[in-house]
């Protein structure tokens, strides 16, 4: 049985005061959540607030990215080791916004993933197709390529140490959600692809759905056999909505 994971991707939002308020809001309601694992991924400068405020709670925290390099002369970058130092347990790698705006390739993402694992973090690997790719019937080809980037660099052992997030690019921040059937189809495809390497890892690996998940559609999505939780963007910025999604995962 896979424990559902609900992770909030806060992206580049919030002030210091708003972050404190959001962290405290989630903390105040966490007792209602009985089964789901819950984590938040604030922007880098606010990780210390998450580490401090969430201390002693079951809420984990992570970052939205890490460097592909171990350390050194890489101005502006943040290493996996630094994230670990700030109490992170998770790090998102390969988000479509980073693939798009920062030119991240599968090879780069594979290196980030490997460094995260090496430093004891759990990477959340994002995979997903654009609308154009879906319309061209290339969804499976694209998500397979994203997954294989990690399989090729770290092998099945690395994949066993992470979480996969299927995030159709056309559903991110658009208010358009994949139907439960559309999402389940891709999740099942991803799990089968992992099973070709190891049936045991395929059974254990959590595959989250991300893309305009909100309280109104979370239960239906997470009721699907291969959907093991959610990576939540916009709806993670309101404590009440985020907790409602976490509850839907229970
Ligand atoms: C995301 O960017 O990871 C995401 C799922 O965003 P949203 O929920 O806003 O679509």
Automatic annotation (TrEMBL):
Q: Which SUPFAM superfamilies match?
A: Triosephosphate isomerase (TIM) (SSF51351)
**Reactions catalysed, as given in the entry:** D-glyceraldehyde 3-phosphate = dihydroxyacetone phosphate
Ligand binding (substrate): 9-11, 173, 212, 233-234
Catalytic center at which residues?
95, 167
Under Pfam families, the record lists: TIM
What start-end ranges are recorded for coiled-coil regions in this protein? none
Q: What is this protein called?
A: Triosephosphate isomerase
Q: Which organism does this record belong to? A: Halochromatium glycolicum
């Amino acid at each position: 049985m896979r424990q559902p994971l609900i992770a909030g991707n806060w992206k580049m939002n919030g002030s210091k005061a708003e972050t404190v308020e959001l962290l405290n809001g989630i903390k105040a309601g966490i007792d209602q959540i009985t089964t789901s694992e819950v984590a938040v991924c604030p922007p880098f400068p606010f990780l210390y607030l998450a580490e401090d405020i969430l201390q002693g709670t079951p809420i984990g925290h992570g970052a939205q990215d890490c460097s592909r390099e171990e350390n050194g002369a890489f101005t502006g970058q943040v290493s996996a080791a630094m994230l670990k130092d700030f109490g992170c347990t998770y790090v998102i790698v390969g988000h479509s916004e980073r693939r798009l705006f920062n030119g991240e390739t599968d090879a780069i993402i594979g290196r980030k993933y490997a460094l995260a694992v090496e430093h004891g973090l759990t990477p959340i690997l994002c995979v997903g197709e654009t609308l154009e790719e879906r319309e061209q019937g290339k969804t499976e080809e694209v998500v397979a390529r994203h997954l294989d980037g990690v399989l090729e660099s770290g092998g099945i052992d690395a994949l066993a140490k992470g979480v996969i997030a299927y995030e159709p690019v056309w559903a991110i921040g658009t208010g358009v959600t994949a139907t439960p059937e559309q999402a389940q189809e891709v999740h099942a495809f991803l799990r089968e692809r992992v099973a070709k390497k190891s049936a045991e890892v395929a059974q254990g690996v959590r595959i989250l759905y991300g893309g305009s998940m909100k309280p109104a559609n979370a239960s239906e999505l997470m009721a699907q056999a291969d959907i093991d939780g959610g990576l939540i963007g916009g709806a993670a910025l309101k404590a009440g909505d985020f907790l409602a999604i976490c509850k839907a995962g229970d």
